[in-house]
Amino acid sequence: MAAALLSAAPAHADEVGCVDTVFKLIGPNHKICIDSLPDPKVDGVVCHLSRPETGGLSGAVGLAEDPSNNSIACRQVGPITIKEDFDAGEVVFSERRSILFKKLRVRRFYDTENNVLIYLVISDKLIEGSPKHSLSTVPIMPWGGVEPRNLPAEKLE
What we know:
Elements: H1 2-8, E1 14-22, E2 30-38, E3 42-53, H2 56-60, E4 71-82, E5 90-96, E6 102-111, E7 116-125, E8 133-139
Antiparallel strand pairs: 1-2, 2-3, 3-4, 5-6, 6-7, 7-8
Pfam families: CreA (PF05981)
Protein name: CreA family protein
Organism: Roseospira marina
């Protein structure tokens, strides 16, 4: 049962780097950070996610609500193999963006008609959610003579 729970868990992002955007006299500066996010169910795809982090005193103690201005870029980095079935809109990555009600989520879709994986990053909030989002697509192509494997036979819904 533990193995099933672990395989269903969203991916873990690795921080690539950050840049300061606003100087704060007390506490950390506001910044934009870039994370590398390999898809846990699709080998050969990596997404890079940029996200703002609020500094200052509230950011230092974890009470700040980070802005919803996120961006995503996903690319094929090797032969694509879909390791297990997934549902349309399944959460690939999730992270809290405030102490209570706000989360950043990366969701995955598959467009069978065009043979493309689609990744959508959104910030959702229990009250007054944000329509701000970013989208990236990965056409499934052969890689170094290796054909993609285990593609879904029909559109996942």
